Amino acid sequence: MSTLEARYRALLRVYPRAWRAANEEAVLGTLLDVADGEGRLSPSARETIALLGNGLATRLGASLPAPVRDGVATVALATGAALSLVFFLAHGWAPWAARDPMVVVRTFGPFVNPGVLLYAAWLIALALFLFGWRRAARIALAASVATAIGLVAASHVTGGWAGLSSTTIGFLGLLALLGLGGTPVAPRMTLVGFGVATAALAGVYAGLGVFGARYHGDHFFWLVPAGISNLGIALVLALLLASALLVARNDTAAAVVVIASLPWAAAWAVGSLTSRGEEGMALLVATAVCASLLIGATTLRRAAAVAAADPSH
């Protein structure tokens, strides 16, 4: 086996075993022929990204029923776009705080920080989906992941900056991955979800005085409205909702609630690791997370069984 073939086979291991048994040799032959024609001795960057992305998507599709993936993608797109719009207004542009010294020091063109690039990718993805250009929307969502990685790299190169917090970047990155795992449902439902999430967050921010003369960075969101105590309560409520849906035998909706809560659970975990005290809440949410995993496993098995029994799924 040549080194090139070994590298391609290593990349193809991302795909599920059943897929590899049926398709690996044919795909490998095509990849080797293309590489030979181009005189390459290693996989190209484009091939590597495509194989890894498609492999992960195929593996996800094999483990989760399509209705669950599509429901999670709907929630992820609506949530990520709503956060991006409000964060852009409050933490990226903030024209009402133009005289705040923090805004004067932290400059990115006419904006406060380069986080607007990430927000723009999300809002473009939503707009493209609403206009029916689903493939282009997925490309924009994937671009948001690349932008997030670029922002993290830029932060390391500059030794720290006034850009987005790592929690925001990681959270939006996780949402993008969930969004890429399925196809959001009807644009009208996605738009409604986006509108409700935007109105709720804007209302909370208005009540907390974020739209005032003082500038607030995006870390404010994770310290106050989405602090570990509030997130803990929200996660427990999500667990109760998933439990109720499970009792009602709405397995797909229960699985969507559990999986869509994972980015929030990750944000809570990050906040807990960087804070002190509140051991009681930490124990409560840890219990909720463990229970969510059990509920998630149960709902996924049942939803998968339903999907397998119904050919329309």
Automatic annotation (TrEMBL):
- Reading the lineage from the top rank, the first entry is Bacteria
Instruction: Give yes or no: UniProt keyword Disulfide bond.
Output: no
Transmembrane intervals: 72-94, 114-132, 139-157, 163-182, 189-208, 220-247, 254-274, 280-300
For this UniProt record, give its keywords in alphabetical order, as a comma-separated list.
Membrane, Transmembrane, Transmembrane helix
Q: What is this protein called?
A: EamA domain-containing protein
Organism per entry = Microterricola pindariensis
Output the lineage of the source organism.
Answer: Bacteria, Bacillati, Actinomycetota, Actinomycetes, Micrococcales
